[in-house]
Each structure stands twice: as C-alpha cells, then as structure tokens.
C-alpha cells in the first residue's frame, strides 16, 4: 500500500499538488476498500475514522482531483449515485463492470474487451479513443440460482 501511496503522491506532485493528510486519508480508504465502489459519502464516513478533522467538502474536492488525475474513476451504475473506483496501476483503460439488477452486486472485469472495437472506431470514424467504459446490467449467477430454486 505504501508504494502505491508514494506513486500517487508523485502524480499529485507532478500536477503541482501536495498529498495533504486529508488527501492521504482519502487515498488510504480507496486502497483499503479497493473492491468496493464507494460513494463520496461512504468515503467521507471512512475518512472520518482516520482523520476526524476532515470535512465532507474536502473529501469531495479530493475525489474530484483524483478523478481529474485519473487515479480514480467516477462511475454511476444507474442508481443516481456517483461512485469512485480506484484505477488499476498501469491500466490503459477503465475496467468493465457487471451490475446485478436484482441484488445490486457489482463485479469487475479486468480484461479489456473492447480493443478490436476501438480499432474499428479509430479506422472507420478517424476518432482517437482515449478511454471507454462498459457496464453490463443483468442478473448475477447467485440471483439466477435463487430464482431457479423459487420456481
């Protein structure tokens, strides 16, 4: 974790920002809960446990800065809540998600499934793709199994 924090600190420094204690607390929460897709409010509640003097506005500003620097990605799974997802180090693109419409679970797909699609878009429309997001919405295997048991 410390190595990742130091690399994020370097990213901030390269963009003329400092890793303040409040920003570090926010980054630590995101790293500790890397598999979660936390809202700003959820991040704030966890940051308060580490750094009680940190305000909600500071967490919002930090998350926006980290989004701008592509340390995190701001995502919405259709529930009206912005969530923040730590970008994998060295990832060329944002990873994909499977969102269950029944239980709300979110599973990540680390494979880049759209490389060929990007090539077509770039060749056919002369559009340089910088990033993409793909979210599949459906029913997870657990809910499907539970549904079969009920019938």
UniProtKB/TrEMBL annotation:
Cofactor: Zn(2+); Mn(2+); Fe(2+)
Details of cofactor binding: Binds 1 zinc ion per subunit.
Keyword Transcription regulation: yes
UniProt-annotated binding residues for Fe cation: 115, 132
InterPro entries (UniProt xref): FUR, Fur_C, WH-like_DNA-bd_sf, WH_DNA-bd_sf
Binding residue positions for Zn(2+): 100, 103, 140, 143
One Pfam family per UniProt: FUR
A GO molecular-function annotation: DNA-binding transcription factor activity
UniProt-listed GO biological process terms: negative regulation of DNA-templated transcription; regulation of secondary metabolite biosynthetic process
UniProt entry keywords in alphabetical sequence: DNA-binding, Iron, Metal-binding, Repressor, Transcription, Transcription regulation, Zinc
Family per similarity comment: Belongs to the Fur family.
Name used for this protein in its record: FUR family transcriptional regulator
Source species: Listeria aquatica FSL S10-1188
């Amino acid at each position: 974790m410390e190595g990742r924090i130091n690399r994020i600190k370097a990213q901030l420094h390269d963009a003329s920002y400092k890793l303040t204690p409040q920003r570090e607390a926010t980054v630590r929460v995101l790293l500790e809960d890397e598999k979660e897709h936390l809202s700003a409010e959820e991040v704030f509640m966890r940051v308060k446990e580490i750094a009680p003097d940190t305000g909600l506005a500071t967490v919002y500003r930090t998350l926006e800065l980290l989004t701008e620097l592509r340390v995190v990605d701001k995502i919405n799974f259709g529930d009206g809540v912005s969530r923040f997802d730590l970008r994998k180090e060295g990832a060329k693109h944002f990873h994909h998600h499977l969102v269950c419409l029944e239980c709300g679970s979110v599973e990540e797909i680390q494979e880049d499934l759209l490389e060929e699609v990007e090539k077509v878009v770039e060749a056919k429309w002369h559009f340089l793709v910088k990033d993409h997001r793909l979210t599949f919405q459906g029913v997870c295997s657990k809910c499907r199994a539970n549904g079969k048991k009920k019938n």
